[in-house]
C-alpha cells in the first residue's frame, strides 16, 4: 500500500483559540511518535490566525486507521466538539 497524505483545515472559534494551541501541541507530539507517521505538522494561516492546517503523511491507510483509534486522537476529537467554526478533511494520494 502506498503513502497517503492528509490536509485537515480547522477554523477555531475565537474564544477557544488559546485552549486549541495546547491541544494542538499535544496531538502533534503524540502523533509524530506513531510507527506509521511519516510527517505530522501544524500550520497557521497568515491572513486568518484562527485557521489551522494540519499536513500529515502516513505510510499507509492502515497507519491512518491505527492513528484514528489512539487515545490522543480520540481525546482530540472529543475536545474539538462544538469549538470549531469549520472543518475540512482531505485524504490525498500523491501523483507526482
TrEMBL record:
PROSITE patterns: ABM. It comes from the Bacteria. GO terms for cellular component: cytosol. Residues 4-92 form the ABM domain. InterPro entries: ABM_dom (IPR007138), AI-2_Isomerase_LsrG (IPR050744), Dimeric_a/b-barrel (IPR011008). GO terms for molecular function: monooxygenase activity. Keywords: Monooxygenase, Oxidoreductase. This is Antibiotic biosynthesis monooxygenase.
Amino acid at each position: 500500500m502506498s503513502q497517503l497524505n492528509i490536509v485537515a483545515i480547522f477554523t477555531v472559534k475565537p474564544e477557544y483559540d488559546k485552549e486549541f494551541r495546547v491541544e494542538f501541541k499535544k496531538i502533534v507530539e503524540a502523533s509524530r511518535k506513531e510507527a506509521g507517521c511519516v510527517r505530522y505538522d501544524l500550520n497557521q494561516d497568515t491572513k486568518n490566525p484562527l485557521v489551522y492546517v494540519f499536513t500529515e503523511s502516513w505510510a499507509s491507510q492502515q497507519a491512518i486507521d491505527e492513528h484514528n483509534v489512539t487515545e490522543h486522537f480520540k481525546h482530540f476529537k472529543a475536545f474539538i466538539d462544538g469549538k470549531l467554526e469549520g472543518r475540512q478533511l482531505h485524504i490525498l494520494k500523491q501523483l507526482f
